[in-house]
Amino acid sequence: MLVLYSTVLLSILGFAFGTFLAYSAKKFEVKEDPRVEMIKEVLSGANCGACGYAGCEAYAKAVVAGKATYDMCIPGRPSGVADKIKEIMQKNAPN
Ligand code: SF4
Predict the structure, then answer these.
(1) Residue 69, CA distances (Å) to 20, 32, 37, 80 in order
(2) Residue 92 pLDDT
(3) What does the alpha-carbon distance between residue 42 and residue 8 come to, in Å, rounded to a whole number?
(4) Helix 34-42 and helix 81-91: axis angle, to 10°?
(5) 80 Cβ below 6 A of ligand 1
(6) Do residues 49 and 87 share a domain?
(7) Tens digits of residue pLDDT in 18-50
(8) 34 alpha carbon to ligand 1 midpoint, in Å?
């Protein structure tokens, strides 16, 4: 009988904590500007740090925050990354 009670109790606790975690994840979700992901997709993705940031994601976030210019990705210069970033920023500007 003790095994049955333990199983039921652990099942109830598991369900309760799972529900709480699911609710918390939704409630405290951090929404990221979709332009960050769009810019990351056009960057060369080398994560080399030549732009002065820790990686491509950090650079994309800095561009969206207005803290970096569009032409700082050195490996992306030959493929026109700066123009692509400019286009993303202009077409998807917040209203
Ligand atoms: S220079 Fe370009 S490829 Fe290198 S980390 Fe910066 S954004 Fe990424």
Answers:
(1) 42, 20, 17, 14
(2) 87
(3) 52
(4) 160
(5) no
(6) yes
(7) 999 999 999 999 888 999 999 999 999 999 999
(8) 19
